[in-house]
Structure formats: structure tokens, C-alpha cells
Amino acid sequence: MALYVEGSGPTVALLQGGPGLSSRSVAPIAELLRDRFRTVRFEHYASTVGDLVEEIEAARAALGAERWFVLGHSWGAAMAALYAVRYPERTQALVLAHPMEVSSQYCAAADAAAEHAATEGAGPEPDGPFALEHDPDLAESLWEGLQDTCPDATGEGYDLTPVARQVTRPALVLLGERDAIDRRSGKLWAELTNARLLSLPYAGHWSFVEQPRQFQEAVAEFLLSQASRRAMAAA
Fold first, then answer.
1. Any idea of the CA torsion for 22, 26, 28, 32, to the nearest 10 degrees?
2. Distance CA 151, CA 77 (A)
């Protein structure tokens, strides 16, 4: 497994979105955090959701980190939640950055926003500035796997709300006021995970590229506060 490790300090796993995006899509986050944290990103090769969660855990074990922070962007936020439910003892805290729709019922708004942007000739590609590094075959397999692992009532979509309810670790949900993803979904993620909710003005789905300073301050403040709490508890 190829791990890209930068910086020093508390360890933060960075999980990319898509699904099927390269870890380069979260490299800007590493650049923003590496002065105060040891950031870790890696390519995802697993074609099932369960195997992807185990791939994340294998990366932690390879680093020798007893516990770490887990930050996921978009699809990666859902994988971060699944990981935290499977391995709560290994998860110090979560950052769910622009989490994907918590269930299929919220996808219509995002589809409409993307269609409108395409019609107007504006707006980013669905996978943002890293669309060319997207693996469509892997994406299709993982989407099908998510529907099998977390099916909704119709049997044709997915529902992550039961997963969100099981998250017991401290969490931050970070949204963008201009994100195409339905804001009601982001608010529900925060409610179900008992997370702190923060919305960044003028940001879309890629706040760490669009509003890097605000992203950096929000995430670093949250992670450092959690690291301090652990240090005080251990004293």
C-alpha cells in the first residue's frame, strides 16, 4: 500500500470522494494541515464498501497509529462514518467535509443543480477540479456496493441514516453555502451524528480549494480541541 505522509503531529487520515477519485483530490487538505498534523492519504483499490473500510484500517495499522482523526470529503465522509462505526476505538474524531447525500432521497436536488449548471455553461464538473482522475469502473462497483450494504426502503437506493445514528465519536460536519448537495442532508448528518455543524460562506463542494483559509481554520481548531481533550484525559 502506497501511503503519502506529510507533516508531524496528531495523525489525520484523508479520505477522497468520488467514489473513484485519486488521493490527489485531498492533497490540498494535506497542504493546509501538515504544519500541525501528520496527514495521510492513499489510493483506494477496494471495489466493495466493506473492503474499503478494511483498507482504511490497514493503512492505520501500517502507520502504527493507535488512534487517528479521520477526515472524509463527499463520498469519503460516508466512508469515514462507516469506518468510525466499525472501529470506534481507533477513531479519535471525525470531520465530514461536504458529506454526500445521507440517503438517495436527497439526490434529486443535487442532480437538478448539476443539470442547471450544465445548461447555463457554468459550475464545476461533478468531481470538481480532479474529474480527469476519476475511475468510472471503480465508482460503479462502489455505488452498487453501497446500495447492497445500506439499502433504502425501495431496494433501489441507499440509506446511510442508520450508520450515522451509530457514530459515537466527536464529529464536525462542514458544509458550503453554495454546495449543490441538498443542505437538508448535511444538517441531518450533523443531527444524527451529534456533530458540530459549520457552513462556509461563498464555498461550494470544494471549500478547501475555494476557501482554503476558512477551511484550514475550522478544521484545525476542531482537531486541536479534540487532541487537547484526549491529552487532558490521559493526564
1. -160
2. 18
Whole-number Å distance between alpha carbons of 235 and 116: 54
Distance CA 41, CA 27 (A): 8
Residues β-bridged to residue 151: 158
The identity of residue 87, as a single letter, is Y
Say if residue 224 is exposed, middle or buried (CB neighbours under 10 Å; 0-12, 13-18, 19+). Answer: middle
* Burial of 123: CB neighbours in 10 Å, binned 0-12, 13-18, 19+: middle
Which residue in the block uniquely carries the three cell numbers 487517528?
68
SS3 (DSSP) at 20: coil
Cα distances (Å, whole numbers) of residue 137 to 88, 91, 127, 147, 166: 30, 30, 15, 16, 30
Distance from C-alpha of 150 to C-alpha of 164, rounded to nearest angstrom: 11
Q: What's the longest Cα–Cα distance across the chain? A: 58
pTM over 0.85: yes
Please give the backbone phi and psi of residue 158, each rounded to the nearest 5 degrees, phi first. Answer: -130, 160
Whether the predicted pLDDT of 116 surpasses 50? no
DSSP state, 101? P
Whether 99 and 77 have beta carbons less than 8 Å apart is answered as yes
What confidence tens digit (pLDDT) does each residue in 180-208 have?
999 999 999 999 999 999 999 999 999 99
Q: What is the DSSP string of 44-92?
A: ---SSHHHHHHHHHHHHHHHT-SSEEEEEETHHHHHHHHHHHH-GGGEE
